[in-house]
Amino acid sequence: MLLAIDIGNTNIVLACAHASDLAEDRSGQLQTWRIETHMGEDAAAFAEAMRAALGDDRCQAISGAMIASVVPAVTHGVKEGVRLVADVVPLVVGDPDVDLGIRVNIDQPSQAGADRLVNAVGAQVHHSLPAIILDFGTATTLDLVAKDGAYEGGIIAPGVALSIDALDAAAAQLPRLALRPFDADLPILGKNTVTAMESGIFWGYVSMIDGLLARLRARYGDVSLVATGGLAGLFAQHLSSKPTVDTDLTVKGLFEIYARNSIAAGGARNG
Q1: What whole-number distance in Å separates Cα of residue 139 and Cα of residue 159?
Q2: Which positions are catalytic?
Q3: What are the φ and ψ backbone dihedral angles of 229, each rounded to 5 degrees?
Q4: pTM score above 0.85
Q5: Residue 58 sits in a domain of what CATH number?
Q6: 262: pLDDT strictly greater than 90
Q7: Cβ(251)–Cβ(32) under 8 Å?
């Protein structure tokens, strides 16, 4: 069994799959688990959290692991935690011996976020290209993957939760806004403080994304749209251009990168 680990600023997402399932493209049936990112600061603490999340049977069946991280301070603890639990040394996106199999067409390829490149690999395999990947995470990002599979760059904006946190921290008279599912009936003009804030967050983000997508499509043509990240389901249905929602895109990309490196290593890493 293979383990994919996506270390984000807020959560660490784990997913397990058998190589045979991935080879037959049954990755749409992935089950994922979340651990708070701070748990990865200590290898023993992460190992305990991983055992609790996955269970002993899954942990004992792990024969290989792949990590993508945007939190360098946590990467080592997670890597060591996996070694403690499963007795395997994970591959890490960004390590010199890990080949993503993707061309990165930006000014400084080494500065591209690991999660964004992994998403691009996932889109290569599971979605039609060219594609714009819309990721609702701690940051809201839009990335373009060209028809030939190259990563062409992207856009980074503050995430929804960050905007709510900023209002809470900087505006003393505003209440803390609870993020909830919105519908198209939400008034654009709030009649009280909470509905005014909800309109700003909800319609503000919908309008921002619609505007950015319109500019991207005016420049790059009618490309497909894939939405991922924890809040994708909250916003995707309200965009003018309806995206395909693939909340497992990052871990699918990690499994694909593992497979590519297994082939390059003569199959020694298959699990």
Answers
A1: 4
A2: 115
A3: 95, 165
A4: yes
A5: 3.30.420.40
A6: no
A7: yes
